[in-house]
Amino acid sequence: MNIALLLSGGVDSAVACHLLMEHGITPDLYYIKIGMDGDDELTCTAEEDLEMCHSIAHRYGLPLEVVDLQREYWERVVTYTMDHVKKGLTPNPDVMCNRLIKFGAFEERVGHQYDRICTGHYARCVRDNEIFCDSAAKEPELARLLREKGMDTCGTWLATAPDPVKDQTDFLAQLSAQQVEKVMLPLGHLMKDDVRRIANEAHLAPARRKDSQGICFLGKINYSDFVRRFLGTRTGDVIEIDTNRKVGEHNGYWFHTIGQRKGLGLGGGPWFVVKKNIEENILYVSHGYDNLLQYGKSFNISGFHFLTGDPWPSEGRMEITFKVRHTDRWRTGILTRTAPDDAHPEGTFHIDGDAPIQGIAPGQFAVVYTRDGHICIGSGEIAV
Description:
This protein is of the alpha/beta class. Among the domains are: 3-123 and 160-218, Rossmann fold, CATH 3.40.50; 233-290, Adenine nucleotide alpha hydrolases-like domains (SH3 type barrels), CATH 2.30.30. The chain is built from eight helices and 17 strands. The protein has helices spanning 11-22, 46-60, 70-86, 93-109, 141-148, 177-182, 192-201, 223-231; strands at 3-6, 28-33, 64-68, 116-118, 124-126, 157-159, 183-184, 236-240, 245-250, 271-277, 282-287, 295-306, 316-323, 331-338, 348-358, 365-370, 375-382. It is globular and about 65 Å long.
């Protein structure tokens, strides 16, 4: 089996390489370049990242190739991001980068030559009929769903990692079935502390390097400054939704997202963004931590995407676990699905959470799991 391993310069992919080599698997190493050349402000930490990658390659005597996907990143991920921002939605570039770049454009350019694409993500793959072979006395939820649907094969499914803080299944929840089939995830069974310990014991160069935060291509400028390049500024009112009283001004609804608390420039807080009027460029805010207008329990999902297959009945109510943002905890609720019709060729998907959720932001991905939280079924955008 030939393996392509995507190195990022961080500790996770470095340990992924170390573990493969320990198991007698020799991968080819690749670094994906997405920083924007020719723009001093839009450069990421590529130089330091590459230094770390070369260190790992030299350590194990492996070749390292840099794959330039700047144009593809700009055309696919940045365009998606700006289109969503312009519509007043909350995009998730990290999710789309995995689908369109790491397992998309890279596959088109290089990855098709390999049996597996290996990364340092915290998630697990359950292949073939492993899902039916569980040592626990209770039948796994996915196995029950597949059995009830009469499916005797389950393919490859994306399963959660044991580290609930670092689990990244939500970042991978838009992959295609073919992409899931090909992915290799050596860190899926490890806690982050274990990964750091392995890196330190093996004296890997990135062992003490901090985890990356934010979107790489932004480099030296922050997200708001980047958005300003595309959409400029336009002064609008900030209105307290309870009283309809103007409490401030903003520079454009596109700089703000539902649930946002910081960066509003309002005194006497806390203030939270609870609604946006796109046509009139108005932000509506609520005051205090306990204002019920900040919370919701129900929302629709548009364009629901199944990762591997559809284990559910074509319509009805399913008990699920779900997330509405990466930093949020897993939640439980009911997913109601309707059968396809002329108005909705793919049917409709609606979630009712068991408990209130703060800051449900249209455009973000709702990621759905089996009720036991073990298997990621798929995801779709939270609808307006």
